[in-house]
Specification:
CATH superfamily of chain A: NADH:ubiquinone oxidoreductase-like, 20kDa subunit
Number of helices of chain A: 6
Largest sheet of chain A: 5 strands, parallel
Largest interface: A-B, 27 and 27 residues
Shape of chain A: elongated
CATH class of chain A: Alpha Beta
Oligomer: heterodimer
Order of helices and strands of chain B: EEHEEEHHEEHEEEHH
CATH class of the largest domain in chain B: Alpha Beta
Bound molecules: iron/sulfur cluster, FE2/S2 (inorganic) cluster
Distance between the termini of chain B: 12 Å
Radius of gyration of chain B: 19 Å
Largest sheet of chain B: 5 strands, mixed
Strand order of the largest sheet of chain B: 2-1-5-3-4
Number of strands of chain B: 10
Structural class of chain A: alpha/beta
Shape of chain B: globular
Distance between the termini of chain A: 39 Å
Order of helices and strands of chain A: EHHEEEHEHHEEH
Strand content of chain B: 15-25%
Number of helices of chain B: 6
Number of strands of chain A: 7
CATH topology of chain A: Rossmann fold
């Protein structure tokens, strides 16, 4: 029987949650016995090769590309897990949500104390993903099946979750493994 | 004890004294009723509703309801846990709670309630409101992004410090904690030794320059759920 597949992505995140996936240490050897990685920065597969059992989403949606990737994950994954605080509540990127987008761009490209931008140009190439008005937690965009908060969630949290779900067991994490920081 | 009042909480017989609230009697008996605004040395405010229990089948706030002979109190039921989860989740989406860099994280009562209730994410959409920070005072700051409007600082300043530094202004979603001054916290009489600075359950009123001193893993609620201290009294209460 073919192994179930796991896909992962980092949207508006810092890759810290992916570092925490790697932080399961030598259990990664057990993990690749259990699953194959599909689309993921872990193996650098860029597009889905088929149906996945589990999708892990790091980061919220800050631009239109994030939204498309997230929708693609929902389409291809049986179970979608919001991994970390940025996916769950927007995280640090969402601190811009109380400011108009223009003010953020002006600060970053025109007015910031360390900005050097003699042409006073705000990047606007068609190739660049379009910024959204706000950073959206992933459950504002697609249905999410499980949330693992934390900045990042601990390796034990990720490990126990994957093992439970891959063995069709209910997810019942102990007190110590649900933390928001 | 002839003047004892006997009633039950979740089927367990509890003996309290006349004039006590359900919360006070439960605390003495080692039964934890979740709470956010209540603090034993402050006047009960009854504002957060986290302590909602069913008294003879009707919802009441345990921190304000006096005990009565023969009353039946339900506390730790799934229906009530759900009410409490709903309230806590609403508090999270109504404010801006960035626990990952909050000085109160690990010692915060709102966060600890969410942990104890098993909340991994609120089911409501985040509102991302605009709230301000007042860091004008040399020793203390208010971050209104994290204020849950519990009223503890208002009571403590008024009743313990005799100063009335804090008061609520506005209504509904516009309600906010205000300071008793023309503009800023630095214009008030608030002092670093005031009780009002100690009682905030979250990271909304904080002392400057003492953040992050306790490492992760050694903070109040890192390993021990909120309410464990009260529950530890149960064995002792049984002996008496
Ligand atoms: S006040 Fe509590 S819930 Fe809010 S950000 Fe700080 S630790 Fe988190
Ligand atoms: S500042 Fe703190 S103590 Fe005062 S009302 Fe807000 S949460 Fe309660
Ligand atoms: S603790 Fe009773 S209403 Fe807040």
């Amino acid at each position: 029987m073919a192994k179930p597949k796991v896909a992962t992505t980092s949207l508006a995140g810092c890759f810290g949650c992916h570092m925490s996936i790697l932080d399961i240490d030598e259990r990664i050897l057990d993990l690749i016995e259990l699953v194959d990685f599909d689309k993921s920065p872990v193996d650098d597969i860029k597009t889905f090769t088929g149906r996945c059992a589990i999708g892990l989403i790091e980061g919220g949606c800050s631009n239109d590309e994030n939204v498309h990737v997230l929708q693609d994950f929902r389409k291809h994954c049986d179970v979608l897990i919001a991994l970390g605080d940025c996916a769950t509540m927007g995280g640090i990127p969402a601190m811009r949500n109380t400011l108009p987008l223009k003010e953020c761009l002006d600060e970053a490209y025109l007015n910031g104390p360390t900005v050097y931008n003699p042409d006073r140009c705000i990047p606007n190439d068609a190739e660049l993903p379009l910024l959204l008005d706000k950073v959206y937690p992933v459950q504002h965009v697609v249905k999410i099946d499980y949330f693992l908060p934390g900045c990042p969630p601990s390796a034990d949290t990720i490990w126990q979750t994957l093992v439970a779900l891959l063995n069709n067991k209910p997810l019942d994490l102990p007190y110590e493994l649900i933390k928001y920081d | 004890m002839s003047d004892a009042i006997t009633f039950t909480i979740d089927g367990k017989t509890v003996r309290g004294k006349p004039g006590q609230t359900i919360m006070e009697a439960a605390d003495e008996a080692g039964i934890y009723i979740p709470r956010l605004c209540y603090l034993s040395h402050l006047a009960a405010h009854g504002s957060c509703r986290v302590c909602t229990v069913q008294v003879n089948g009707r919802p009441q706030t345990a921190c304000t309801q006096p005990i009565a002979e023969g009353m039946t109190v339900e506390n730790d039921t799934e229906a009530l846990r759900q009410v409490r989860r709903d309230i806590v989740e609403m508090l999270f989406v109504e404010g801006n709670h960035y626990c990952m860099f909050c000085e109160a994280s690990g010692n915060c009562e709102l966060q600890a309630l969410a942990y104890r209730l098993g909340i991994t994410a609120p089911k409501y959409p985040y509102m991302f409101p605009s709230r301000d920070v007042d860091a004008s005072h040399p020793d203390i700051f208010i971050d209104r992004n994290r204020c849950v409007l519990c009223g503890r600082c208002v009571s403590a300043s008024r009743d313990l410090d005799g100063k009335t530094v804090f008061e609520f202004v506005g209504r509904g979603p516009d309600k906010r904690i205000a300071v008793n001054a023309e503009a800023r916290l630095s214009d008030t009489e608030l002092d670093i030794t005031d009780q009002a600075v100690e009682v905030c359950p979250v990271g909304a009123i904080l002392k400057k320059r003492v953040g992050y001193t306790v490492p992760i893993g050694q903070r109040k609620f890192d390993h021990t759920p909120i309410g464990s201290d009260i529950e530890a009294r149960a064995a002792q209460a049984e002996e008496n």
